[in-house]
Write a structure and sequence with these properties.
heterodimer, A: 456 residues, Jelly Rolls, 3 domains, 43% strand, disordered N terminus, B: 205 residues, 6-stranded antiparallel beta sheet, 3 helices, 15% helix, globular
C-alpha cells in the first residue's frame, strides 16, 4: 500500500479490471437531470481517475432477474429503483444496496475473497432522491449521484474507509467527489501507476510493472525533469521504485538530448532508509553525457533516481533497464532464531513468500520469520496478504539479540470482511521480527508482506 | 456525564454521514422500532441458495440467553440474512455483517416474520458484540469500538437535533451511543448488565 494512505481493500476484485453496467434508468430527478446521467457521471469519475474501467450500456436490465445458468451472479450488471431487493424487503431506513457475486478464491468455505463477476445496485424507491452537489440536505432527500459513487466503490472492490478523507468513508463531511485515498485504493487493486511521498519529502513513482521477477526483463520509460520536481543537491530529481524479486545483474541506461544526466540506484529498507552498500551513482559512463550503471544487485526494492549533472537543468529523458536473474530468490542471510526456526534477514519493504509443509510449525501452524532493522524512529504499517489462507501476523521487538524480545502486537484480520493482517506501530530504533503464519492450523499458500512508512 | 455526552453528541452532530445505504437512527428509534431484542450466541449457521433467483442466504441460529423486549419465543431463534458463500459461489451485500459462529451479542431484531435483507434494525445500529475484556463481558460495536455509554436522545428538541444522515451498513452506531475506538478504551466499555440496564431504561420510558 502506498505510504500515508489507508483505503480498505475488500479482497474481492474483477479479474478484467472492467465492469459493464446497464444504466437504462428512465426518468429525471426533481432538480438534477436524468437519473442515468447522474449514474453515468459517477461511473466516469472512477474510470477517469483510476485504472478501473466502468463501461455504460444505455439499456435496462432488471438487476433481480437471474440469467444464464440461473445463478444470481449472472455477469450482467444492472441498476434500478425498486421497492424490494429482489423480493426481499429493504427494512427500515435502508436506501441502497450493492449486491456483488462471484467465484471464491481458494478453498476456504467461508470465501474470504472472491473474483467479482456481478454487481447489481438497487435504490429504495420508497425514499426521497434527487441529484445535487454540496452539503447533504437537511430534509433527508438523498443525493443519488454520491450514493452511486460510493456504491460503485464497493462494486469495484473497496470497503469503507475510516481514516483518511474518502468517498468510501462512513462519516465524512459533505464531500461528493472522489478523494485521493479512493483513487490510490482503486489503483492499488488494479495496478495503475501511482506515487507515494517519502521521508525525504520527495514523491516516488510506483509504476504499474514495478515488480520484476525475471528470469530476464527489459523495461523502458520516458520522463521529463521539470522545475516543479523535487530538488536534491540543488538539482531536479525524479525517482521510480522497482522491486527485484531475485538477485540480478542489471544494466540501467539514462539518456537525454537536453541535459547532462546523472543516475542514482539505491536500495531502500522497510523503513525507507537507504542501505549504504547498495547505493550506486553515475554521471557520464555512457555515450556523451549519458549515464549507465551495470551491477550485480541483491533482491530488494530500489529507487532509480534521474537527475542532472549541473544545477537547474531540465528536459526529456529515457531510461532503459535490462535485468537478468542470478538464480531464483534472494541471497538473504538466514540465522537460527533460537526457537528452532531460521529467521531470514530481509529488510525489503516488499516480501513474497509461501507457507509450506516444510516450514517450522508453531502451535500447529506453519510460520516464517523475517528480520529487519529500524535505524530512525518511524511509523510503519505492515500488511500480510494472502488469497490462499487466513493470515495471521506477529511483530516482535528482538533488540539486543535476545530471543525473549517483547511481542509487540499481533493481528488476525484487517476488518470483519478482510482476513488479511495489518499492524501499524511507531517503532523505535532496534531489531524486529515479522512472523507470517495462518489463523487456522495446517494452512499453506503464497503471501506477500509490504511495509510502508506512515508520514506525519 | 449525561450533559457532557449530549454536548459531544451535538458537536459531532454537525458532521454528516455520507454516501451510503442507511439512514441514521436514534437509539430510541432502534429500541422502539425493534420487535424483539435479545442477548444471544450464534450456535449454528448455514447457507442455502434459492433455486429460482440464485440468491444465497445465510440462516443463523442463535441461542437466546435473555430477552429484553418482545415475547418469549423459546431457547433459540433463526434469523435469515441475504448473502453468503455456497459451493464456491458467493453473494455479498455491501455493508451487511452476518453474525459468525460463536459470536455473542445483543441483537435488535426489526421483525421476526418479514423477509428482510438484514433482520437487524438499522444494520450496525442494531448489532452489538459481547467481548471478553480481562474477564469482564463488555459491549463493542461490530467494528470493534468500545461502547462506553448509551443515552436516550429523544428529549433533545428537534430544533437543535442533528439532522438525519446516512451511514455505512457495517459501521457506525445510532445517535445516543457513545463509542471509543482507542484500544486502550476497551476497559471503559459498558458491561453487559450496564448496557442492558440502559436499554431497558429506554424501553420503560
Amino acid at each position: 500500500m502506498p505510504a500515508g494512505y489507508s483505503f480498505e481493500f475488500s479482497g474481492n476484485f474483477w479479474e478484467s479490471g472492467t465492469a459493464t453496467f446497464h444504466i437504462g434508468l428512465e426518468g429525471d430527478s426533481p432538480t438534477g437531470g436524468p437519473w442515468k446521467s447522474a449514474f453515468s457521471e459517477a461511473m466516469d469519475s472512477w474510470t477517469n481517475a483510476t485504472a478501473f474501467q466502468f463501461v455504460a450500456v444505455d439499456d435496462f436490465v432488471d438487476p433481480c432477474i437471474a440469467r444464464g445458468d440461473g445463478l444470481f451472479g449472472d455477469e450482467v450488471t444492472g441498476i434500478d429503483f425498486t421497492d424490494t431487493i429482489c423480493g426481499t424487503a429493504y427494512g427500515e431506513n435502508v436506501l441502497a444496496v450493492t449486491l456483488t457475486a462471484g467465484t471464491c478464491i481458494g478453498t476456504d468455505p467461508d470465501c474470504p475473497s472472491f473474483h467479482i463477476t456481478d454487481a447489481d445496485i438497487v435504490f429504495n424507491s420508497n425514499e426521497s432522491w434527487d441529484v445535487y452537489t454540496g452539503p447533504l440536505r437537511f430534509n433527508n432527500t438523498i443525493d443519488f449521484r454520491r450514493v452511486a459513487l460510493h456504491e460503485l466503490g464497493h462494486a469495484l472492490g473497496l470497503d469503507h474507509e475510516q481514516t483518511n478523507p474518502s468517498i468510501m468513508q462512513a462519516l465524512v463531511d459533505d464531500s461528493d467527489t472522489l478523494q485521493q485515498d479512493d483513487i490510490i485504493g482503486a489503483n492499488f487493486i488494479y495496478g495503475a501507476e501511482s506515487t507515494q511521498s517519502t521521508v525525504y519529502g520527495i514523491d516516488v513513482v510506483l509504476p504499474t510493472d514495478a515488480t520484476i521477477s525475471g528470469p530476464s526483463n527489459e523495461l523502458q520509460f520516458d520522463g521529463s525533469l521539470e522545475n516543479t520536481d523535487a530538488q536534491f543537491d540543488s538539482k531536479f530529481i525524479d525517482i521510480y521504485q522497482y522491486t527485484f524479486e531475485n538477485d540480478s545483474s542489471i544494466d540501467i541506461q539514462l539518456a537525454s538530448n537536453e541535459f547532462n544526466t546523472f543516475l542514482y540506484l539505491a536500495r531502500i529498507s522497510s523503513t525507507q532508509d537507504l542501505l549504504g552498500e547498495w547505493v550506486f551513482t553515475d554521471d557520464n559512463s555512457d555515450s556523451g553525457t549519458n549515464s549507465r550503471i551495470f551491477e550485480d544487485i541483491q533482491a530488494g526494492t530500489y529507487w532509480i533516481g534521474v537527475s542532472s549533472g549541473s544545477n537547474n537543468q531540465q528536459g526529456d529523458y529515457s531510461v532503459t533497464v535490462n535485468s537478468s536473474d542470478n538464480g531464483p530468490g534472494g541471497s538473504f542471510t538466514r540465522v537460527p532464531s533460537g526457537f528452532g526456526v531460521d529467521v531470514e534477514i530481509n529488510p525489503n519493504p516488499s516480501i513474497s513468500g509461501a507457507l509450506s509443509g516444510a516450514d517450522f510449525i508453531f502451535e500447529g501452524k506453519f510460520l516464517d520469520l523475517y528480520q529487519f532493522e529500524v535505524i530512525n524512529p518511524v511509523s510503519l504499517r505492515i500488511n500480510l496478504r494472502s488469497t490462499e489462507f487466513d493470515s495471521f501476523m506477529i511483530l516482535a521487538d528482538v533488540s539486543g539479540g535476545t530471543v525473549g524480545g517483547q511481542v509487540f502486537v499481533q493481528n488476525d484480520d484487517v476488518s470483519s470482511r478482510n482476513r488479511d493482517s495489518q499492524i501499524e506501530r511507531q517503532l523505535q530504533p532496534g531489531t524486529y521480527w515479522i512472523a507470517a503464519t495462518s489463523f487456522d492450523s495446517d494452512e499453506t499458500g503464497n503471501y506477500t508482506i509490504t511495509s510502508t512508512v506512515i508520514l506525519p | 456525564m449525561r450533559q457532557i455526552f449530549i454536548f459531544y453528541y451535538l458537536i459531532v452532530g454537525i458532521q454528516f454521514a455520507n454516501a451510503t445505504t442507511i439512514l441514521s437512527m436514534d437509539i430510541d428509534e432502534v429500541v422502539t422500532d425493534a420487535e424483539f431484542i435479545f442477548e444471544g450466541e450464534v450456535v449454528f449457521s448455514e447457507t442455502r441458495q434459492d433455486t429460482g433467483s440464485g440468491i444465497i442466504r445465510t440462516y443463523v441460529t442463535f441461542a437466546i440467553n435473555d430477552v429484553l423486549k418482545g415475547d418469549e419465543i423459546g431457547d433459540s431463534v433463526e434469523l435469515t440474512f441475504m448473502g453468503g458463500a455456497f459451493n464456491g459461489e458467493v453473494v455479498q451485500v455491501s455493508g451487511l455483517r452476518i453474525p459468525e459462529d460463536g459470536e455473542q451479542g445483543i441483537y435488535f431484531v426489526e421483525s421476526l416474520n418479514r423477509n428482510l435483507v438484514n433482520p437487524l434494525i438499522g444494520w450496525s445500529q442494531g448489532h452489538f458484540i459481547i467481548v471478553d475484556e480481562d474477564g469482564d463481558r463488555r459491549i463493542s460495536t461490530i467494528d470493534e469500538k468500545a461502547v462506553t455509554d448509551v443515552q436516550s436522545v429523544a428529549a433533545i428538541p428537534l430544533a437543535i437535533k442533528k439532522p438525519g444522515g446516512t451511514i455505512e451498513g457495517d459501521s457506525d452506531v445510532a445517535a445516543g451511543v457513545a463509542t471509543d475506538s482507542n484500544p486502550n478504551g476497551r476497559s471503559r466499555a459498558l458491561t453487559v448488565p450496564q448496557f442492558k440496564a440502559q436499554i431497558l431504561g429506554i424501553i420503560e420510558h
